[in-house]
Structure formats: structure tokens, C-alpha cells
Design a protein that fits this description.
Arc Repressor Mutant, subunit A, two-stranded antiparallel sheet, single chain, 50% helix, 352 residues, 2 domains
Length: 352
């Protein structure tokens, strides 16, 4: 078998880069937990000893961490002064939890997700899937941290205004359900923005609902925002003005059944907001850096989560608009459109 050595070494170089990326994910989580990024943010050049003193950590470990971060381009290093600096742009992504550019949750999610590798490997053999609740708790928090900045930056500012007549209803006072709400980030953003409306977040995962209630209390929105344990096909109530699914419909074992329940629970002039990871309809068109993240995360989380449930449709995180349209219109919705989008989100609107 003839092997093109140049092609082989090019691939090995790529694989070495991926090894560094994988290990860097762990270093980011360490830096986040220890407050290393926040201590470096807007502090100018620091020696490893100065950073260790600021954070109450061990200089030798901090120095090795800094060298790894410098090799990855996350911090800069001045050989003449032996000082390290976190540029303002990197600080925005690594030290500001409220920034739309914050990536900390993504790294936390990845490191926590990998702890399920034995279960996922077994799921390849059995096809039985792995439930969301079977993952490490860091996945739940990491997912919330990963998506929350995007919700904070886009939900009220552009996604709600892109829906037909919904913003006026929310301003006046509407009844809203957030299905698969997790820690409640999206629900709380909406409740703060529209105090005349009432919001209920539903999720089957009890520990997430407990955390959502705490966060609602901290945000001061308990007057118009509550959270309850319930599934996507059996949450209570009817005549809702708005039902929302944020980055969760593709995780459901029976998305069409969930869509049918939405239709039954909506008011006749109600709206269903579906936010999904951005994807084109063809696999070849998703073979890019964003698709790489979503396909990989979907292999560990989304697809096995769906397979663990009844029906097990397993849409995956790169389902694309056409497949989602089939699910939603197949459930009885007569109007469906892409309301808007971001590089990471499809924002879809469905109406009875």
C-alpha cells in the first residue's frame, strides 16, 4: 500500500493540533475555576509569581499553565521580561461571563461531557442511548453558561422582534411557556424584559428545575416566573400566547409528539418559537468549524439523549431547517418560517 508521506505528515500535524486543543480545554476550565483569567484581565503584564500571589495558587503550577496558554495563543509572553499578559480581546472571551463572546461554558461542557465516554462508547454497541440526566452535573452548568450569553445578546434584542406580533403581546401581558428550560437562562431573560407577562419553565430534570428556581430568586423575577418539573409532551395548561423551545427540540426522543403537544397547548393565535443550532440541510455544507463543534457535541449529548427516550428520532444538533420543517408541519402547524438567524442559531417561527 503506497502512502503519500506528505499527506500523512500533514494529517499528523493536524492531529497534534487537536491534541493540544483537547488539553487546552482542560486548562481553560482550571483557569476559570481558579480565577486566573479574571486576575489577569486588564492587569497588564504579570510574572507567574505575581499571578500566583494574586490568586492564592502555587507559582510552579501557574507557570506551567501560563506556558501552555502562551503556546496556544490564549496569553502573550515577553521573553525579555518573562511576563505574561491576557489581551483585552481574550479577556472578553475568558474573563467576562456576561459577554456574548464568552466561551467558558463551552469548555466546561466539553470537559464534563468527556466523563461520559464509557457510557457513550457502550451506547454505540447497544443503541440504547444515554439520558441527559446521566451526564456529569458540569454538563448542565456548562450548557447554560455556553448558551446564556447568546440569549442575553439576542433574545429580546432581535429574536422576539422578528416574530409576528409577539413583542406587542409580551409588552401588554402574555402567557409564556419555556419547554426544556434547564437552568432557566432563557426564561429569566424574558421575565426580566417583559414584567407584564407570566412565564413558566418546564424541564423533566428535577435538579435543573431546582437550580432554575434559585436563579429566578437571585434575578428578582419570582413574581412573574416559575419553574416546574414536566416533560415536553405532558406539561400542563392551554391557550398559551407563546411556547418556546431553546436548543432542545432535537434532543427529544419524539419531537413530533412534542410538536403536537405544543399545538394543543397554544392559543388559536399563539406562536411557537424554536431556536436550534445553526445547520444547513446537507451534511457537506456543515463540514466547517461550527459544524465540527455541533456534530461532535451531538455525538456525545444530543443523539444519545434522544435515543434513550421513546421513539428515539435522534434528529441531532445538525438537523437543519428542512427536517425541522417536516417534524413541525407534520404535527399540524400550517405556518412555518425562519424568522432570523445567527452564525450559531436558527430561529424558527411556527403558528397553527
Amino acid at each position: 500500500m503506497a502512502v503519500d508521506e506528505a499527506v500523512l505528515m500533514e494529517f499528523v500535524g493536524k492531529a497534534v493540533g487537536d491534541l493540544g486543543s483537547a488539553l487546552t480545554a482542560g486548562l481553560v476550565v482550571v483557569g476559570d475555576k481558579l480565577g486566573l483569567y479574571k486576575a489577569m484581565a486588564h492587569s497588564g503584564p504579570l510574572t507567574s509569581a505575581e499571578l500566583a500571589a494574586k490568586t492564592g495558587t502555587t507559582e510552579r503550577m501557574v507557570r506551567e499553565w501560563l506556558n501552555g496558554q502562551a503556546a496556544s495563543g490564549y496569553v502573550t509572553y515577553d521573553a525579555a521580561t518573562q511576563r505574561y499578559e491576557l489581551p483585552d480581546e481574550q479577556a472578553e472571551a475568558l474573563a467576562n461571563d456576561d459577554s456574548p463572546a464568552c466561551v467558558l461554558g463551552g469548555f466546561q461542557m466539553i470537559v464534563s461531557t468527556l466523563r461520559a465516554e464509557p457510557k457513550i462508547t457502550d451506547a454505540f454497541r447497544t443503541g440504547a442511548g444515554v439520558g441527559w440526566h446521566e451526564h456529569d452535573a458540569g454538563v448542565f452548568e456548562g450548557v447554560e453558561r455556553f448558551f446564556r450569553p447568546g440569549y442575553a445578546a439576542n433574545l429580546v434584542q432581535s429574536w422576539i422582534p422578528a416574530l409576528d406580533g409577539v413583542e406587542a403581546k409580551l409588552d401588554a401581558g402574555a402567557r409564556v411557556v419555556d419547554v426544556g428550560c434547564g437552568y432557566g437562562a432563557s426564561t429569566i431573560v424574558l421575565a426580566k424584559a417583559y414584567p407584564n407577562s407570566t412565564f413558566v419553565g418546564f424541564d423533566y430534570h428535577g435538579p435543573s428545575i431546582d437550580e432554575a428556581r434559585k436563579r429566578a430568586a437571585d434575578a428578582g423575577v419570582t413574581d412573574n416566573c416559575t419553574f416546574e418539573v414536566s416533560g415536553a409532551k405532558d406539561y400542563p395548561g392551554h391557550d398559551y400566547d407563546l411556547v418556546a423551545h431553546f436548543d432542545c427540540l432535537h434532543d427529544m426522543g419524539d419531537p413530533r409528539g412534542a410538536a403536537e403537544h405544543v399545538l394543543q397547548s397554544l392559543a388559536p393565535d399563539g406562536t411557537w418559537l424554536i431556536v436550534e443550532p445553526f445547520a444547513n440541510d446537507g451534511v457537506a455544507d456543515n463540514l466547517n468549524p461550527v459544524g465540527r463543534v455541533f456534530y461532535s457535541a451531538s455525538t456525545f449529548i444530543c443523539t444519545p439523549t434522544s435515543l434513550s427516550q421513546e421513539v428515539g428520532t435522534a434528529l441531532g444538533a445538525q438537523a437543519g431547517e428542512a427536517r425541522l420543517r417536516d417534524v413541525i408541519t407534520g404535527a399540524g402547524f400550517t405556518r412555518f418560517r425562519r424568522a432570523t438567524e445567527t452564525p450559531f442559531n436558527l430561529v424558527l417561527e411556527a403558528r397553527p
